[in-house]
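Board notes (copied after class):
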Amino acid sequence: GETLDLLGKKKDKVVTSDSLKVLDTEIMLWYPPAVSGDVPTGRSGHTASLIPSTNELVLFGGVKGSKWLNAVSVLDTVRWIWSTPKIQGSAPKPRSYHTATVVPGLSEGHFKIVMFGGNNKTSCFNNVPVLEMVTTPTETVWKWSHPSIMGQPPFPRTGHSATLMDDGKTICIYGGWDPNEENDAGEENIFKSSFLLDTETWTWSKGPKAFPAGNGTDEEPEVPDCGAKRCGHTSTVHPETGEVILFGGRIPGEVLAGDFQRLSNGD
């Protein structure tokens, strides 16, 4: 059946785990697979990116206690074997609560995992490290690159969303916050803007605005509009309209949102 993977969890006492749980989405059942290999340490705030052609899950970053991480681990989701690949180039700084978006390359077997943002103990990031994977019949080559990007970048942030648009090359960054900065009113600095990153020309541009989308259905009760500022939300592309749909997250005032927002260039 189809499965989803989770590694690690965060509780009130910041307890992390290196156990793996799989959700079989055909029978809606959680189970712990028997894994082997070079199992990564437990952590929170990491990313897990699926490479569709190889069924490999690429784990990066996160934080364990007071230590931020920048190692890469790869899980073979067919054989349930962990490995630590040898990677060419310079790894980015350790970080957590960043995003990692899989972008197909121009040739078969070539994928880019485009990362953005995240934070460590003292600062947030707005650089764009890229982990490239090239698979041939004889080997798989991994390489870090740090492209020069044109245009005005987003402010450094963490807890944002990154959504691959339906053109297969543009990433939409939305929201997030900077826990180390306050806005002009002395409030926590939660963002409400979006930015588009073209991963072929490596250019930043302004993205669409957020509009209320209710509770996602026509049924009552209506969910109040929680505003555009949010972090820790989720996002996906609407299959018919191509708009980015946002759900939930934390809004100013330590409030958790339960509404939908849509990103659109229109009203």
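Comment from the instructor: The two ends are 41 Å apart (CA to CA). Residues 9 and 15 are 7 Å apart (CA to CA).
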